[in-house]
Fold:
Amino acid sequence: MVDVRDAAKALAGAGRVVVFTGAGISAESGVPTFRDALTGLWERFDAQALATPQAFEDDPDLVWGWYEWRRSLALRVRPNPGHEAVAAIERHAPHTVVITQNVDDLHEQAGSTAPIHLHGSLFTPRCAACSGPAEPSRQPEPEEGRRLAPPRCGHCGGPVRPGVVWFGEALPVEPLESAVQAATECDVLLTIGTSGLVYPAADIPVVAARFGATVIQVNPQPTPLDEVAAINLPGTAATVLPALVEAAWPPS
Ligand code: APR
Structure:
């Protein structure tokens, strides 16, 4: 495990750390990644085909039902040792910025203070017409999923849509700017559980490397970021990250 020791040394010695996460960090909490096959009502569909403005326009009940099912799942699941290790990094290295592509709130639940959500959140629906905020539901959804008509906006009567970034949509400006700035300033960037295929988010580790940061990757599978990472730690978030934190800041 020489690589874990090298990674731990880089992490413990870093002034500024960026933790960049994707769906893989939530996989061991029971949230399927975008590469996993869908189940129940959604099994005939591809996650990437449901996450588009066109899909919502063509079949709003199907897409809203899928997001409500995901919101309901996100309310049931709990952070795993990977999320907890990220929160521990923030405690040990106070200049840490957490950037996530995930729309769940498992980083917050684990104690991360202000993760930057590049792709929005399951808990901030808004009007598709006037962009006015809408109240997120707390209602549990059936496990197999269901079609569900989107609620209507209280201001203009337009359909409510999920507060997430769909394929083909621009990322929210402020989170993206903060993320790029953190990437240019950090000494170590830890990229965890992302396929590195979806842009512009996938550029964040590339920017960090270009500005001189040591990029450390945690992923059980090869990704395009293997090329960018100085240290690759093959394995799952919930196994590798606690070991990395313990090696970086051994318990006294
Ligand atoms: N621990 C760490 N990594 C894991 C684990 C695990 N337990 N399980 C799977 N992975 C890895 C996979 O090997 C894969 O590389 O997580 C990655 C998940 O890839 P994606 O599903 O593509 O997720 P992500 O990279 O977050 O997707 C980016 O695409 O669909 C859009 O907006 C959506 O934010 C999402 C974006």
